[in-house]
């Protein structure tokens, strides 16, 4: 998901084995999980490849993520107690105190304006030349980890393991587009304040105001998806919420 390999790029199992110092069977097991999550594809006589990306796919991922995370959040609020509330607030604190190197949560704005190109894959190829240095990537990866943990903390008490698994897969797929956006050189968040959005979601959740929390989460996810579509120059449009 880091964007080191372009969409459609072929995966060399032996090279992966040498890079990570693990057995081929372990590599196959890991890739099998990525296939299940829709991040890698497999075709007879062609082998494993990085899954393609597109505007319509990003739209689908965004809509499904908004709908399913909303359902999970509503159930989590109904079932969550004091420990869940404290876990959500702790995850929020870590998120708002972790640097993301100036990159937004899929936000528009910043130097360079909208990405040029008629497709996500074309934009990705153009952006590869301007990828950030290793230290900046490390910061971005740290932020992605705590960002993922915050969103999961909201949902973890839903009591539906399969729903939670679906939400994890969709978050990973959304995260992949956000990392591609970062590889294009995304800078400031424009007039958005992602920390404020996360705080507003958490505030409504721990107050057990399910309707408001779900509304804020839905708007947050759809806003991110629309911004990513715009920045990546992708075809497609998000339908209105519910």
TrEMBL record:
GO molecular function, one term: DNA binding
SMART domains hit by this protein: FCD
Keyword Ion transport: no
Pfam families named among the record's database cross-references: FCD (PF07729), GntR (PF00392)
Entries under InterPro entries matching the protein: GntR_C, TF_FadR/GntR_C, Tscrpt_reg_HTH_GntR, WH-like_DNA-bd_sf, WH_DNA-bd_sf
Superkingdom as given in the UniProt entry: Bacteria
Keyword terms: DNA-binding, Transcription, Transcription regulation
HTH gntR-type domain ranges (all copies): 1-53
Protein name: DNA-binding transcriptional regulator, GntR family
């Amino acid at each position: 998901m880091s964007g080191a390999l372009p969409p459609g790029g072929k995966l060399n199992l032996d090279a992966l084995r040498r890079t990570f110092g693990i057995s081929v069977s372990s590599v196959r097991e890991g890739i099998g999980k990525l296939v299940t999550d829709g991040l890698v594809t497999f075709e007879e006589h062609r082998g494993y490849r990085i899954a393609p990306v597109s505007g319509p796919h990003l739209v689908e991922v965004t809509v499904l993520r908004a709908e399913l995370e909303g359902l999970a959040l509503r159930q989590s609020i109904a079932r969550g107690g004091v420990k869940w509330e404290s876990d959500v607030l702790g995850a929020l604190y870590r998120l708002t105190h972790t640097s993301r190197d100036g990159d937004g949560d899929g936000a528009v704005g910043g130097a360079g304006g909208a990405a040029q190109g008629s497709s996500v894959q074309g934009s990705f190829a153009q952006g590869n030349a301007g990828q950030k240095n290793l230290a900046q990537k490390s910061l971005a990866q740290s932020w992605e980890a705590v960002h993922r943990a915050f969103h999961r903390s909201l949902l973890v008490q839903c009591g539906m393991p399969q729903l939670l698994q679906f939400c994890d897969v969709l978050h990973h797929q959304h995260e992949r587009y956000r990392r591609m956006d970062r590889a294009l050189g995304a800078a400031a968040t424009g007039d958005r304040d992602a920390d404020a959005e996360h705080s507003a979601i958490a505030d409504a959740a721990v107050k057990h105001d399910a309707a408001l929390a779900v509304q804020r989460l839905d708007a947050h996810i759809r806003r991110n998806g629309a911004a990513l579509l715009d920045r990546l120059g992708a075809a497609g449009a998000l339908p209105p919420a519910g």
